[in-house]
């Protein structure tokens, strides 16, 4: 196998369910020893922990002849993140791949969003990705290798309704990934972001009332979470050695490479600008290239299967 993980150790956060569970199982099938992290929280992430989802995935891996341990720390805790990396070192002697996958949702329209809705989502997705990445960074630097994969979302890359907290966090994750790729390239460390599309409890929480929304949800139900895993494993393996600083998407059998923002128009005047000259010259000049207020679903309109 080209994209092999034999002899490597992977930490997958939020791996008790959904996309993360698929990645943990695929990592083990590819030969990796796996730390299966999951706090076992509700979708909102505001209840007590139940670590049984992580343990169930560990049991599956062990029954199939693989090596895995469960960890129930929260990615939102800096100390907890260090504990899960320590679980990799203590049990398997090293760490080679970190998949920042844990996630929660607190969807609400922006003008109704409470401070706690914002903080809770940033704490898990953005700060959590920082926490776990930072905890592994010292080991990656020391051994001169390592691969990060961070789950981003088209809610951040494109836009979505009622998800200002989540969109901000997920676009932040893309920026975090790119910066890690830049800063740690000198140590042979790679970092990439992946926007998954999968039918999990996270998507099941999207309200659907109109016939169009109900039709879209029926399409989303065809998206199998396990389909994200082969791409993530390939990225973490040595076969992905030349791949860093990129943003990808995976939707069933489709794999996307996303663009990254670059200037598309420029306006210049040797005299400088006044508010009036901006209004009179720049807005009309740029207008035809403005992006519509697209949501993710407006961009991914074709049948996923
Ligand atoms: N499903 C999709 O279509 C989709 C789309 C875009 C992005 N994503 C991203 O993919 C990732 C996985 O999502 P999913 O759809 O599998 O959701 P999911 O709810 O099925 O799984 C997320 C897991 O993360 C765990 N978790 C939550 N908070 C945690 C914490 N603080 N510490 C450790 N674990 C925690 C939960 O217990 C849960 O098992 C998330 O980052 C999500 O934002 C998913």
UniProtKB/TrEMBL annotation:
Organism lineage: Bacteria, Pseudomonadati, Pseudomonadota, Alphaproteobacteria, Acetobacterales
Record Pfam families: adh_short
Assigned protein family: Belongs to the short-chain dehydrogenases/reductases (SDR) family.
Family matches, as SMART domains: PKS_KR (SM00822)
Database matches in InterPro entries: KR_dom, NAD(P)-bd_dom_sf, Peroxisomal_Beta-Oxidation, Sc_DH/Rdtase_CS, SDR_fam
Protein name: SDR family NAD(P)-dependent oxidoreductase
Organism: Oleomonas cavernae
Domain Ketoreductase: 8-205
Gene3D superfamilies for the chain: NAD(P)-binding Rossmann-like Domain (3.40.50.720)
């Amino acid at each position: 196998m080209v994209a092999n993980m034999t002899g490597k150790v992977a930490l997958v956060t939020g791996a008790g369910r959904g996309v993360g569970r698929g990645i943990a199982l695929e990592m083990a099938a590819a030969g990796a020893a796996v730390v299966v992290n999951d706090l076992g929280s509700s979708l909102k992430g505001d209840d007590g922990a139940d670590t049984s989802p992580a343990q169930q995935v560990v049991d599956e891996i062990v029954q199939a002849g693989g090596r895995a341990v469960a960890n129930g720390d929260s990615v939102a805790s800096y100390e907890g993140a260090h504990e899960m990396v320590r679980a990799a070192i203590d049990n398997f002697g090293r760490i080679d791949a970190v998949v920042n996958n844990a996630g929660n949702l607190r969807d609400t329209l922006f003008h109704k969003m409470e401070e706690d809705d914002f903080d809770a989502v940033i704490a898990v997705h953005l700060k959590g990705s920082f926490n776990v990445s930072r905890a592994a960074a010292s080991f990656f630097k020391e051994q001169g290798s390592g691969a990060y994969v961070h789950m981003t979302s088209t809610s951040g890359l494109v836009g979505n309704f009622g998800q200002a907290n989540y969109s901000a966090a997920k676009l932040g994750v893309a920026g975090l990934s790119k910066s890690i790729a830049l800063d740690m390239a000198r140590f042979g460390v790679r970092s990439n972001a992946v926007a998954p599309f999968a039918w999990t409890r996270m998507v099941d929480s999207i309200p659907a009332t109109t016939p169009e929304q109900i039709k879209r949800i029926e399409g989303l139900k065809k998206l199998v979470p396990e389909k994200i895993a082969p791409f993530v494993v390939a990225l973490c393996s040595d076969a992905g050695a030349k791949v860093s600083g990129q943003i990808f998407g995976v939707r069933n059998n489709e794999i996307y490479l996303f663009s990254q923002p670059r200037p598309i128009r420029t306006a210049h005047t040797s005299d400088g600008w006044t508010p009036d000259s901006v209004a009179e010259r720049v807005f009309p000049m740029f207008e035809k290239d403005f992006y519509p207020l697209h949501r993710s679903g407006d961009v991914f309109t074709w049948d996923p299967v």
